[in-house]
Amino acid sequence: MPNRHEITACILCSRNCGLDVQVGSDRFVQIRGDPQHPISEGYLCQKAARLDHYQNHQDRLTQPLRRRASGEFEPIAWETAIEEIAAKLLAIRQRYGGRAFATYGGGGQGNHLGGIYIGGIRCAMRSRFSYTALAQEKTGDFWVNDRLFGRQTCHVTEDIDHSDYVLFIGTNPWQAHGIRNARDTLRTLSKSLSRTMVVIDPRRTETAALADVHLQIRPGTDAFLLAAILAIWVRDDLVNNAFIERHTVGYDALRRDLLKVPIADFVARADVPLDAVGRVARDFASAKSACVRVDLGIQQSLHSTLNSYLEKLLFLLTGNFAKLGGNNLHTLFMPIIGHSDEQDPENWRTTVTGFPGIGKFYPPNALPEEIDTDHPERIRALLVDSANPVLTGADSKAYERAFHRLDLLVVTEVAMTETARLAHYVLPTSSQFEKWEATFFTLDFPKNGFQLRHPIFSPRGNTLPEGEIYRRLLVAMGELPADLPILRQIASLDRKFPKLRLYPLALGFALALRPKLRRHAAFVVAQTLGRTLAPGAEWAGPLWAAAHHYAKRHRRAVRRAGHGADGSNAGEALFAEILRNRSGVVLSVHEYADNWRFIRHADHRIHLEIPELLEQLRLLALEPDASSEFPFILIAGDRRSYNANTIYRDPAWRKTDRVGALHMHPADATELRLAEGRSVECKSAHGSISVRIAYDPGLRRGVLTLPHGYGMRYGDGATETGPAINRLTGASHRDPIAGTPFHKHVPVRLRVVQEKD
Ligand SMILES: Nc1nc2c(c(=O)[nH]1)N[C@H]1C(S)=C(S)[C@@H](COP(=O)(O)OP(=O)(O)OC[C@H]3O[C@@H](n4cnc5c(=O)[nH]c(N)nc54)[C@H](O)[C@@H]3O)O[C@H]1N2
Ligand SMILES: Nc1nc2c(c(=O)[nH]1)N[C@H]1C(S)=C(S)[C@@H](COP(=O)(O)OP(=O)(O)OC[C@H]3O[C@@H](n4cnc5c(=O)[nH]c(N)nc54)[C@H](O)[C@@H]3O)O[C@H]1N2
Ligand code: SF4
Ligand SMILES: [Mo]
Known about the structure:
By secondary structure, this protein is α/β, with parallel strands linked by helices. The chain is built from 28 helices and 28 strands. Strand 4 (about 65) and strand 5 form a beta hairpin. Helix 2 (about 80-95) packs across helix 18 and helix 23 crosses helix 25 (about 570-580). The radius of gyration is 26 Å and the shape is globular. The structure holds ligand MGD (2 copies), iron/sulfur cluster (SF4) and molybdenum atom. One ligand MGD binds near residues 133 and 708.
């Protein structure tokens, strides 16, 4: 078969850059950026070029598998797998109720369509427990957003392209991206003489090397440094009083606490020069526009939720919000983040650890404790989808122990992972290039975009898309009818004669009359309207409802993007364009003033006072300087050129750093007489792993780093692929509010081991 030309997207990080690819029957031949993509406009990074290692490798699954008592897997038919799992789920529901069941994951960096449907299984099990990776990085941020802006769904983005002063805290976009076309954006910013770039990071990262100012902070002390900057503003009256007066409430209480911050002590604690901090404070406050971009360096470190508060106060107190070059709220096309009301009794708390849902998510850090306990309401059954918690959650050993205690572990995967290996059933799903897919990372403002990806390869072996797997399970559980012929016929009638518009009415009736269907509305739409779309596209059906909802909520911005600009129905026009334009569509073009509408407090003001966090701020001054029997702080999991979570399993994808070296300052290494390339044992309070040393003069003394996304056992478990860092991390080392782990702050020591060779 000759090569074909296809349009798709990269699935390795939240930017999901558009791709223009040449493919053979089942492999990538050439991968380029797609200039037509509305956001990435042709950009891509070096990781995307290796996507064939995701599509083709030894660990790909092609058959449903059941684990025998002996521990080996046997292939079984789909019917058997579905019947057996459905029966077991129903038995668990009946005997123990919904609290005994949880899901983990349901969508990763590139696949969110399936995530719509995993919720159906949770509903069928009467459970609310949804554990996800997001709740080990971003839930502290969501919690703060609720308090400041009125809803956990109010999520902030940064207008770096137009900003005069950009502050990066605990993030390395050069490697990790997270911002639009990161390397181009950073280069442009760095070259500009009139714009300033500041990086706060314990390592001189690739990003820091491009910056005008690098504050090489002591790990885990950002709360001290940020509080000091805010305190300087209050002391020297550098805040934007007009903005505060007009758009906020609660400033007086905040100000009182900031006035008490011992600035010089706090800056000393962060171990950065006081005069440099003073300059950053003054320049940020007086810049025409300034914005803040943060990520795991502060979200997965000490004071995680407090950091999320202080970081936002930087742009709020200076009035760099709702404006060009500042920080802004953005819209979500699909509700990837939910809202869990703190006061709502329906917002379940985890049974043993007592964490409430935040953004409708529960923290992975709590999960092993929720399973591995004798509490009568412990979790007994778990469905994992698009995640590998045994490798990526804190404390791998605790996960392994807990998963062995489950009555039922089902894993829906494209690959035989470390987590799948512990499952009772492994359900093979088609890869993201073999089914209709999309991500709901629509994180941009003022222009927001979305791409629906068409399959570019045939499904491998006996694999199915997640929607179909979960539909079959729900039918077997008696939750969903096998077919909805009348509604389906009405949907196809509407497709042929769009003016009829019978389907929305009929759907409304069906859902009103049959409450059981209402629980599974997404499946109903997929199985009716979805089946009138291109073959196999049914699981994209709910995007129709999303398009209508979005167009209604953001009417002007959607019309400004051209949908329904001629006066036709904007929701219908948006949906049609999503189906038609393979490179993706501009969803909406907003105005900066829209931010005030996005704020969900009734008064549309920002509520600056958060008593729980002000209490934490007051306690900072009393916090003892951590002393530890461990001489080093390990940043467990940095982003490098050749890691991409655990999405690529075959180590052959890596052009460099195959071993995933432990980076260390050469002077620290010399002191311990450790040469580059030497193997050492890295030991924490939780475990130890063997690692190889590489020098990094850009690190602070006393700080080590190991990469995230290594440690898979590839090819039937035969090949170990570098450090399994979560053997070193601990689950109780976490934020008190959000339960987020302090992965970037793991005390360790090194011990020389005898070389084998
Ligand atoms: N190449 C690559 N890119 C990725 C991923 C990947 O696996 N590989 N994963 C994606 C995902 S899921 C995510 S969430 C993002 C994460 O993206 P980032 O958060 O930007 O990436 P990290 O390298 O984990 O951490 C960022 C920085 O925090 C710094 N840091 C550590 N401790 C501290 C501290 O105490 N204070 C401060 N201020 N900084 C500190 C580290 O030195 C590091 O440079 O990356 C995404 N992009
Ligand atoms: N110590 C430490 N631990 C960390 C981090 C760190 O910095 N340090 N970073 C954390 C962060 S920010 C994150 S986001 C997590 C990420 O960790 P996880 O949430 O576990 O997610 P991924 O590593 O992205 O794994 C994605 C899985 O989805 C599978 N997959 C790919 N495509 C499909 C598909 O179409 N369908 C299905 N069903 N499965 C598919 C892949 O095979 C892979 O096993 O790791 C976290 N763990
Ligand atoms: S920036 Fe992210 S989405 Fe874009 S090519 Fe690189 S890994 Fe893929
Ligand atoms: Mo992440």
